[in-house]
Specification:
mainly alpha; 2 domains; two-stranded parallel sheet; protein transport; TatC; membrane
Length: 288
């Protein structure tokens, strides 16, 4: 090969490399703007929660500490209906205090930020979808077109379940649990906020199980057959997760939490089966 041809080949190869590098950095730039827009949405909701903090704190964050909370009232009605007065929770023992000079100010900022992230999560999913969408084929776009809706719906359902079921049951148990009557339960506001946020957000994330199954099935990592054969192990794992989410020894509470997780696992099996059928059909059409 002559020197001129070598030079031309080297220039072409360098051009291809530069084009690939530019494409990579273009993708990074696009991702950066998607994340910036999602961050702006989260900041907006955070400021909104900060402005309406009286309602956010008194009615939302401190709700599970109020004996008139919706869950406690429903449990009292259920106890009356079943003639089981033990179901009724009409008092939440314990006292919440602040032990730091700037504690209440940082509390307002942290709780507003948690509310902002929770409310902005669906928009974050939308921006992620907008980033991934151009890389998909038309059929893939159609099959995944409901990703944002279903992921947001499951997250909201998980948040509501965690806030109205898991959190009040856990708070009422932990606030009233005593090793000895000599020890008085006095909690810091940071500890309380951390417990409420962790229990609520963790349940919201756990409810994303069908979406995770869909992604793994699409990548060929997970199959419906594998999930069916591993159902017995999944039962154990779900019980462990339910025990972690609900730090109470109450079997009824663990059962109430475990049942939706079982249902989500079964939904995941159906989702994996649907993805496999679509793949098989696509392969058959490609073979024709």
């Amino acid at each position: 090969m002559s020197d001129d041809n070598k030079l031309i080949k080297a220039i072409k190869d360098k051009g291809k490399t530069m084009e690939a590098e530019m494409s990579f950095f273009d993708h990074l730039e696009a991702l950066r703007w998607h994340l910036i827009r999602a961050s702006i949405a989260i900041v907006f909701f955070t400021i909104l929660a900060f402005c309406f903090y009286d309602f956010v704190f008194d009615k939302v964050i401190m709700g599970p500490m109020d004996p008139q909370f919706f869950t406690y009232r429903m449990l009292c009605k259920l106890g009356d209906y079943l003639h089981r007065p033990g179901f009724c929770i009409d008092k939440i023992p314990g006292k919440i205090i602040n032990t730091e000079m700037a504690g209440q100010f940082t509390l307002q900022i942290n709780s507003a930020l948690i509310i902002g992230i929770t409310l902005g999560f669906p928009y974050l999913l939308w921006e992620i979808w907008r980033f991934v969408k151009p890389a998909l084929h038309e059929k893939e776009r159609k099959s995944a077109s409901g990703f944002v809706f279903y992921a947001s719906m499951l997250f909201v359902l998980g948040i509501l379940f965690g806030y109205y079921v898991v959190t009040p049951e856990s708070i009422s148990f932990l606030a009233g649990y005593q090793v000895s009557k000599i020890i008085e339960n006095t909690f810091t506001i940071d500890s309380y906020l951390s417990s409420v946020a962790t229990l609520t957000l963790a349940t919201g994330i756990v409810f994303e199980l069908p979406i995770i199954v869909y992604v793994l099935s699409s990548l060929g990592v997970l199959t419906a057959k594998f999930m069916k054969s591993g159902r017995r192990y999944a039962v154990v794992a779900i019980l462990v997760v339910a025990a972690v989410i609900t730090p109470t020894p109450d079997i009824l509470t663990m059962t109430v939490v475990a049942i939706p997780l079982f249902l989500l696992y079964e939904v995941g099996i159906v989702v994996a089966g649907v993805v496999e059928k679509r793949k098989l059909k696509k392969e058959e059409l490609a073979a024709l």
